[in-house]
Design goal:
The chain is an alpha+beta fold. It has four helices and seven strands. The protein has a single domain, classed as 3-Layer(aba) Sandwich (Aminopeptidase). It has helices at 12-26, 32-52, 105-119, 134-140; strands at residues 3-6, 55-62, 65-76, 87-96, 124-127, 143-144, 149-152. Strand 4 (87-96), helix 3 (105-119) and strand 5 (124-127) form a beta-alpha-beta unit. The chain starts with a strand and ends with a strand.
Length: 154
């Protein structure tokens, strides 16, 4: 059993650690010094973007531990005929700890992120999917594009 909640600034160190776990799973290993440098940069980024409201993260909690997360970044682009506000959302770092996968947690977090984009009157959501995550997004209606995947809300 798990519960969902929005991340707070107190969660920033753990968000950075989960991002590092995610990167280690999908990329080559980095040196300890490079990881330490990245951890600091990521914490600074999250602090700034959470303070401005441009970044939110949803967390899944079980046994008082963060077991999954994903973040949503609001991006201001040039207005287009199909998107007069120019606002887009970018989903980053959908990550569930290995032992908690395939239990509907990623789906639950994704639904919270889509709901948040609607609340912000954003009609375009973009992301880059790992091969493991791609079916989750396709099931929700995301389409493969170049680059990444997109979902356009009505």
């Amino acid at each position: 059993m798990f519960s969902l909640r929005l991340a707070t600034k107190d969660d920033i160190p753990q968000l950075a650690e989960l991002r590092i776990e995610f990167i280690k799973e999908i990329r080559l290993e980095y040196t300890k010094d490079r990881i330490d440098e990245y951890r600091e940069v990521m914490c600074n980024y999250l602090e700034k973007e959470m303070s401005s409201g441009n970044f939110i993260a949803w967390l899944a909690i079980a046994n008082n531990e963060i077991i999954a997360t994903s973040g949503l970044i609001t991006i201001q682009r040039v207005p287009q005929f199909w998107n007069m506000s120019g606002k887009e959302a970018y989903i980053m770092n959908m990550y569930t700890k290995p032992e908690w996968r395939n239990k509907g947690i990623g789906t639950a977090i994704l639904e919270k992120l889509v709901e948040e984009t609607k609340n912000r009157d954003i009609i375009a959501i973009k992301l880059y999917a790992t091969p493991m995550g791609k079916p989750l997004y396709e099931k929700r209606g995301f389409k493969v594009g170049h680059p990444g995947m997109s979902l356009y809300l009505e």
